[in-house]
Design goal:
Glutaredoxin, two-stranded antiparallel ribbon, five-stranded mixed β-sheet, alpha+beta, single chain
Length: about 170
């Protein structure tokens, strides 16, 4: 029964999202964005995210490394607008990503519920258990993922993944 109710809820969220540029919905009184969205949309709807984004300083050396990426890389970023780890970790990554403005880097942002569900079923399909999770795809295949807590920063960890020798 619980899954049926969640499926109905996600169907409604999907319809609302398509009609309203994915505005926040309330789940148990908590506003959150569910499904495909943009970083700008999150910043427009969540002041606490904007406050973090406004304090980010960009490491120009990491930006240069992002700019130097010559092969197409697709990033699926699963996050919770309700999640403190997402709110802390995503804005610094986004600052570097935006500053680099590299056409070889494609980013899709997917908001999830606390149960790690979204209208398209991408989070369960990719086995998302914690957020934020960056699923890094090359040639349509997952090559790595960065989950919840970066070793350095998500931006630097991303570069480390892409520059790791194949033999490792």
């Amino acid at each position: 029964m619980r899954h049926f109710i969640m499926a109905c809820f996600l169907a409604v969220v999907s319809i609302v999202s398509a009609q309203d540029n994915n505005s926040p919905v309330s789940i148990n009184g908590e506003p959150m964005i569910i499904g495909h969205t943009t970083y700008e949309n999150i910043l427009n709807h969540f002041e606490d995210w904007r406050a973090v984004a406004d304090t980010v300083t960009v490491d120009s050396a990491v930006v240069q490394q992002f700019k130097a990426i010559r092969e197409p890389v697709h990033i699926l970023l699963f996050l919770g607008t309700w999640c403190g780890d997402s709110r802390r970790g995503v804005p610094p990554f986004m600052a570097v990503f935006r500053a680099a403005n590299n056409p070889n880097l494609k980013l899709d942002i997917i908001g999830v519920t606390r149960d790690k569900e979204d209208p398209e079923g991408l989070a369960p399909r990719y086995g998302i258990e914690r957020v934020p999770t960056f699923v890094i795809l090359k040639d349509g295949k997952e090559m790595a993922r960065l989950v919840e807590f970066p070793k350095k920063t998500f931006a630097q960890d991303f570069i480390d993944v892409l520059t790791k020798p194949e033999s490792e």
